[in-house]
Amino acid sequence: MNVSKLEEIENALNDLSREEQLLLIEHIAERLRQSEGKQAQPLYGAWQGKFPVDVDIDKDLVEVRRDWMKKFEKLAP
Question: For each of the chain's 77 residues, which pLDDT tens digit applies?
């Protein structure tokens, strides 16, 4: 966290009452507790088996680009 962001937070905290600050701490603590069990899933292999193995990405990209070019040509004066 950069210094200016920390100063901004401290200034905002000064505007809160003691009770509001305690509620904020409780809220932050609860968010942290809930996020503890959520670990980032490695992406390697995450999509394995989700798409047909015979997909030709290069061919499909050529078709998509061709369609884009047709649309762009229609837009050109």
Answer: 788 899 999 999 999 999 999 999 999 999 988 887 777 778 888 888 887 888 888 999 999 999 999 998 888 77
What is the amino acid identity at position 73? E
Other CB atoms within 10 A of residue 52 CB = 6
Pairwise CA distance, residues 68 & 55, whole Å = 20
What is residue 43's predicted lDDT score, i.e. its pLDDT? 83
Enter the DSSP assignment of 55: -
Q: Are 42 and 50 in contact (CB under 8 A)?
A: no
One-letter identity of residue 22 = L
Q: Using alpha carbons, list the distances in angstroms from residue 46 to 38, 40, 49, 60.
A: 16, 12, 9, 22
Spans of all domains in the chain: 3-36
